[in-house]
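Renewal narrative, Specific Aim 1. Our central claim is that a sequence can be written position by position from structural information alone. The example that follows is taken directly from our test logs and has not been curated for this report. It begins with the structure tokens describing the chain, in the order in which they were read.
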């Protein structure tokens, strides 16, 4: 629920949430941490009809002193999630060779249920490009969910000598 400051905007936001179950785009929410900062969060749902590639709950050891989960922790989880469909498609070992894009849209907090959805978007002779989208369920009991990160990574299939090899699906 947004913080109440007595201004008209808060009343409009509260009415929109009560009416539709979602706030207007660009609504500012309290972060739920001691710092009391605000985050522009566009509420969304998890992708319908898809199972996450990876789902984790970040712990206090993954967070900064302000309660935000470290970006590096999120990046490592994105790399793991992206590698899963790449390994399956390559039918063997892969190595991350590029992070083509990585955008942090919202912070992740201790206790969020973080879901990673990975889809192969391109297959080259030795490479596999994967799109990873990340959602955080802030309060799973109330289905508060925001898209927190989007990334595109490229993996290369490698042999036992760690040299590039043809992707098995291409053989």
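The sequence written for that structure reads:
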């Amino acid at each position: 629920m947004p913080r109440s400051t007595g201004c008209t905007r808060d009343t409009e936001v509260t009415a929109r949430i009560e009416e539709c179950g979602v706030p207007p785009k660009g609504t500012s929410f309290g972060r739920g941490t001691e710092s009391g900062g605000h985050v522009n969060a566009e509420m969304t749902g998890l992708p319908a009809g898809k199972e996450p590639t990876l789902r984790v709950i970040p712990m206090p050891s993954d967070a900064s002193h302000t309660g935000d989960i470290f970006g590096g922790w999120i990046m490592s989880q994105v790399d793991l999630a992206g590698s899963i469909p790449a390994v399956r498609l390559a039918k063997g070992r892969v190595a991350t060779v590029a992070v083509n894009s990585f955008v942090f849209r919202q912070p992740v907090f201790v206790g969020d249920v973080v879901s990673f959805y990975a889809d192969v978007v391109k297959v080259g002779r030795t490479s596999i490009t994967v799109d990873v989208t990340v959602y955080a369920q802030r309060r799973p009991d109330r289905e508060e969910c925001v898209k927190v990160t989007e990334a595109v990574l490229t993996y290369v299939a490698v042999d036992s000598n760690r040299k590039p090899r043809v992707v098995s699906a291409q053989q």
